[in-house]
What we know:
Layout: H1 17-20, E1 28-31, E2 36-45, E3 54-60
Amino acid sequence: MERSVHTQPTTDPDHMKELCDGFEVGMRCSVEPGDKRGEVKYVGPSQGGVPLGWWVGVQYDEPVGKNDGTSKGE
């Protein structure tokens, strides 16, 4: 699935919910750019200080950056 980049902050707590409805925790995925493979660890509304809307948290297979499916410790 592709996600469009939204540059303006939203006031809609359900922003991107329809796109996230296609993901489930435990699914395998490929993240672009770079074709990084991983596992979905979180699907749901924003938590922990990330912008408003729905998110998919991914833990990468390879140790790339700090991406383990969390944001600001959650």
